[in-house]
Amino acid sequence: xxxxxxxxLKSFIRxxxxxxxxxxxxxxxxxxxxxxxxxxxxxxxxxxxxxLMMYNSATNVQMALxxxxxxxxxxxxxxLGENYELVAIKAAGISLKRAMYPMITVVTILSIAxxxxxxxxxxxxxxKYFSLLYDARKQKSADLLPExxxxxxxxxxxxxxxxxxxxxxxxxxxxxxxxxxNGENNNIVILAREGTMFRTMGDKYLVLRxxxxxxxxxxxxxxxxxxxxxxxxxxxxxxxxxKFDLSTFKITRTNESEFKQASQMMxxxxxxxxxxxxxxxxxxxxxxxxxxxxxxxxxxxxxxxxKVIKKYKEFDPKKDVFQGLTLSEQQxxxxxxxxxxxxxxxxxxNRSDRYKGDSENIRRYFVExxxxxxxxxxxxxxxxxxxxxxxxxxKGGLGLPVVVSVVFFLIYYIITTIGEKSVKGGDxxxxxxxxxxxxxxxxxxLFLSYKAATDSALFDMDIYKRFVNRVIxxxxxxxxxxxx
Length: 484
Prior knowledge:
InterPro entries: LptG/LptF_permease. By secondary structure, the protein is α+β, with helices and mostly antiparallel strands.
């Protein structure tokens, strides 16, 4: 048994690591394709991009781990069945269930590790990832002087470069507009035939070294009372330099504490505390709303002519509420009641909007809380599908197992996504919506396990053809008799 268990473990570990790496790589490529425009051309250091990719890989574990377990188990048992190793194991008197014990142990350990990862490491990775991605997306482009465009990258300057060399350092036909200190007018214009640009040590300044140009400066008269004419100075130069501050182009990190209140950044303990306190707050607000509305339902007001104050009377549906009142008093009562209805309606609307917002937050945090447990159970359920399915189809490699595993994973992922969105929208029971994918796939896994244990030819097309032929043959004589 030890040799058989060791054989199964060796056959599982290698496909699992390979498939996990492939799935993580594919998901990472999808991330890069999605945010390529926000990351390229902004002058990030290589380690910043690497750090962002590392945090993104950590956030992708929730999707990559179940798919890897499903695919690797199908490949493992499919390869054992294809090479008749499962037949030899069964011939030795070892049932499939007993042969699955070491794999169940390994997948259980992986499920526990997945829960610990989602509870302790994933909130930290999400915090680092989303905060860094937020800062990277709002970062200005590092292409400071694009060709043929008036660039306002530097405050107080408008710069246009007609043409650049392929190296991006040598510039031609440069035009610089410098605004006045009050920022209203462009009182300095610099024109240059060519120039070069480079950065100083530490990327503090961008230096433009201009050649063969002219500088125009327009200034106000010294005594505006007697002389309203402005002065224009023109200065030609062979070579000059202009510095631009690059501090605004360096990535500035936002304080991570601003993101800690999001549900993805909390562990189970924090989510439990938030759910309890939020639910208690919502329940107390509901009681306040009830106490606020109750007096308006139980009583109605009758203004009297002799007093300014309002007198209240208990509502009795069997009696006429306007009994003993004149027409003018009835009109005043209706007007007063309508005014009070409008006021209480406004109060209820504001409190109702607040209640809806709090309820949506509670549902969103509940979803994140349940996802931590759902991940571990999903690993077990998908293994329960993959192991018997692999022994039934008896195909190893990356052909049919990939197709089958992708189909089942898409079913799991689509049902899970629909359930989560329904829970967040309040359209379905919270527990049912979060566990509907498990409830759907668990019977399939048990059914496949039964079929594999009984050596059922589930995917033998000849069986289905014979069944269809028997059904056709059964109804064919009746159809012939009717035609006669």
